[in-house]
Specification:
Shape of chain B: elongated
Oligomer: heterodimer
CATH class of chain A: Mainly Alpha
Bound molecules: adenosine-5'-diphosphate, magnesium ion
Largest sheet of chain A: 2 strands, antiparallel
Number of strands of chain B: 22
Strand order of the largest sheet of chain A: 1-2
Distance between the termini of chain A: 35 Å
Number of helices of chain A: 13
CATH class of the largest domain in chain B: Alpha Beta
Largest sheet of chain B: 7 strands, antiparallel
Structural class of chain A: mainly alpha
Strand content of chain A: under 5%
Shape of chain A: flat
Order of helices and strands of chain A: HEEHHHHHHHHHHHH
Strand order of the largest sheet of chain B: 21-20-14-11-12-13-22
Helix content of chain A: over 70%
Number of domains of chain A: 1
Largest interface: A-B, 19 and 26 residues
CATH architecture of chain A: Orthogonal Bundle
Radius of gyration of chain A: 24 Å
Number of helices of chain B: 8
CATH superfamily of the largest domain in chain B: P-loop containing nucleotide triphosphate hydrolases
Radius of gyration of chain B: 25 Å
Chain lengths: 295, 368
């Protein structure tokens, strides 16, 4: 009994901190999202109901943001995880170069988002002086250039996904190379003695052994991609609605502080919808991983 | 399958780049007849695992050749050698069930060698029955005891009917009782399958009890090869004599003077043909006989009754360690009382070694 009391005492700072900075705002957001006709200046509201949700769900900007977010999630999470796995496999098979390459691949991770954004500008943006390096390449091979930053939707989405993958890869590579290195060599030796083909070694030994890490990356990848916002700003500027590249978090931010800002109720409703989506997907992920991660 | 190792040598570069290379296995030459169970014996770090890895193909030899029957396999990768290897920590795939683990080697086979699905299952069941784990087929390795895991590892190594079966310290992770039982199992399985088997251990008793042949190694060099009893009775050098036998052999600093083997002040045995001069003397514990008139006069430290036998702990000035230990039948125990005790020594339990080279001296006999 006494030890339990002590345990709670030790937990108190963390619990208090979480309560003040996590639980209270969450509850507050929940309350806001149901208050209709909230007036920022007078801090008063006209009624309680689902109008905020209905408004947000019918707002074309929000629907565009949802579409963009889902596209980014569906394209970047599998691609970045798969690519990171390929690169990690390559890295672990060349022992000597591993350290050097790990540094190179990790550079984007320690570099400021906006700095990486600048690099992408140089690669993709059309200015008065140049069409951007990628367009120069396309033109060199006889294609016609595209304005990736202010051009068609698919081009912007391409740059957006490219950028997102670029930014999240280093972390994934780091995690996967260490996961690969932690697989006991003795399993590979046993498999070699038994004449296991390379591909089978990968699917039957390597993959199951690192599957907990892969699922970790997929789950955190989903959550991270759903929360995408700053990368979009780095590429397309702050007026994301105009660029047609807004995300759900971007929409929430705009509702609070943007040009059309001052609508905490709409922002709260949008945030809770995002929460519901992320929560559902994470639950599905966990269910799948429980049935597939093998130990 | 007859197995021939010819001048097999493996050196590893030193961790410290400037240091000399580590010679893990040095000119290992040995021909193992078909169907024998060989115990490879030696202290930790003497190159036993390296030898197995060379035979299995996981390591490539620095020089020398390996032949399975008449086929030179030195250059073959492990998958083409047809060996089964049981790793020291078993290396069972933790995410696969026992059945999937045992099936794994079969599923790797290609073309004509690949059995049908039913055939594979039948073979896996057969292997599991051989090691008596057929009732555990659907468990994961983490749900098995050490002894059961070990059997699964053996079944996995056996299921593809290897030409040579290699076991690296298969018993070291088991408790004492299970060890006794499992080593008999290994013997039985080897007999039933007739597969040439090499089994590594640092425990001399294990190797002695089940092997047809034992190979004693030290520092990468083979010290002696032969049937267990003959190696025990006729060690080639002091290392082998010390390494085999529990309790270990007692070592004395002695001298051959005027044809008498002399330990300290005591002239214990009249010899014929032994060179005069200093000599290292090994006496097996069972070589002591309590004898009130015996020539070997010792201090008596302790008498430990162990049932059928009694262990006598004594002191003697010529002894190289503080005490020596003799094993006598318990009915002779009455002779061991007081502060001193006298023994006579059984000549066939005495070994003489050159003090400089530690090689055994053979050309002597007891004078009539
Ligand atoms: N991969 C390696 N690199 C360097 N030295 C090694 C390697 N493997 C083994 N050795 C050395 O070779 C010697 C024999 O090792 P090993 O065969 O594992 O001994 P044992 O199995 O008899 O205990 C040891 O001195 C060990 O340090
Ligand atoms: Mg070893």
């Amino acid at each position: 009994m006494k030890t339990q009391w002590k345990a709670w005492l030790y937990l108190l700072p963390a619990v208090a901190f979480l309560g003040v900075f996590m639980v209270y705002p969450l509850v507050d957001v929940l309350v806001y999202s149901f208050e209709e006709g909230y007036n920022f200046a007078s801090q008063s509201y006209s009624g309680v109901g689902l109008f905020n949700y209905s408004y947000v769900l019918h707002d074309p900007y929000f629907l565009q943001a949802v579409k963009n977010t889902f596209l980014i999630v569906i394209i970047t999470v599998p691609l970045s995880t798969g690519l990171a796995l390929l690169i990690s496999l390559g890295l672990s098979s060349i022992r000597k170069l591993r350290d050097l390459f790990q540094t190179v691949f990790f550079l984007p991770y320690v570099t400021n988002t906006l700095a990486v954004g600048l690099v992408f500008m140089i690669l993709f943006k059309k200015t008065a002086y140049t069409d951007g390096m990628v367009n120069l390449l396309i033109q060199f091979f006889g294609g016609t250039g595209v304005d990736f930053i202010e051009g068609p939707y698919w081009a912007k989405m391409f740059v957006m996904c490219f950028y997102t993958i670029w930014v999240v890869m280093p972390f994934k590579i780091l995690i996967l190379t260490s996961a690969l290195a932690s697989v006991n060599q003795v399993y590979y030796n046993a498999a070699r003695i038994d004449g296991t083909p390379r591909w089978r070694m990968f699917t039957r030994i390597t993959l199951p052994m690192i599957s907990p890490m892969i699922f970790y990356l997929v789950i955190t990848g989903f959550i991270g991609a759903f929360k995408a916002y700053s990368d979009e700003v780095a590429l397309f500027g702050t007026n994301l609605n105009a660029a047609g590249m807004n995300t759900i978090v971007g929409y929430v931010y705009d509702m609070l502080y943007g040009n059309s800002g001052g609508y905490p109720s709409f922002a709260s409703a949008a945030a809770l919808i995002l929460f519901a989506i992320v929560f559902t997907i994470t639950c599905i992920n966990l269910l799948i991983s429980r049935n597939n991660v093998q130990y | 399958m007859k197995l021939v190792l010819d001048q097999l040598t493996k050196t590893f570069p030193n961790r410290n780049k400037k240091g000399p290379d580590v010679v893990a296995v040095n000119s290992f030459t040995f021909e193992i007849p078909d169907g024998t169970l060989v115990g490879l014996l030696g202290p930790s770090g003497c190159g036993k695992s390296t030898t197995l890895n060379l035979i299995s193909g996981l390591e490539r030899p620095t020089s020398g050749r390996i032949l399975f029957g008449d086929e030179d396999v030195t250059e073959l990768p492990p998958e083409n050698r047809g060996v089964g290897l049981v790793f020291q920590n078993y290396a069972l795939y933790p995410h696969l069930t026992v059945r999937q683990n045992i099936l794994f080697p079969l599923q790797n086979l290609k073309g004509d060698a690949r059995p049908s699905k039913e055939e594979m299952l039948r073979k896996a069941d057969e292997a599991a029955r051989l090691v008596q784990i057929d009732w555990l087929m659907d468990r994961k390795p983490s749900e098995l005891s050490g002894g059961q895991q070990q059997r699964v590892a053996i079944a996995r190594a056996l299921v593809k009917m290897p030409r040579v079966l290699l076991l690296d310290e298969p018993l070291s992770n088991l408790d004492a009782r299970l060890r006794l039982q499992t080593r008999e199992e290994i013997r039985r399985i080897q007999r039933e399958t007739g597969i040439t088997t090499i089994f590594v251990t640092h425990d001399q008793e294990e190797a002695m009890s089940i092997s047809d042949l034992i190979v004693v190694m030290s520092d990468g060099v083979v010290q002696q090869i032969g049937p267990p009893q003959s190696v025990y009775d006729h060690p080639d050098n002091l290392f082998v004599a010390k390494f085999l036998g529990t309790p270990p052999i007692n070592v004395f600093t002695g001298e051959v003077k005027d044809g008498w083997l002399t330990l300290g002040e005591d002239r214990v045995l009249k010899l014929q043909g032994a060179p005069e001069g200093a000599v290292t003397v090994g006496v097996r514990p069972e070589g002591f006989r309590i004898d009130a008139e015996g020539p070997f006069r010792c201090g008596l430290k302790a008498v430990e009754v162990m049932g059928r036998d009694t262990s006598v702990v004594g002191t003697h000035p010529a002894c190289q360690s503080e005490t020596f230990r003799g094993i006598i039948p318990s009915e002779d125990r009455d002779g061991a009382a007081g502060d001193t005790v006298r023994f006579s020594l059984k000549p066939n339990k005495i070994h003489l070694f050159d003090p400089a080279t530690e090689a055994v001296l053979r050309d002597w006999s007891v004078a009539p």
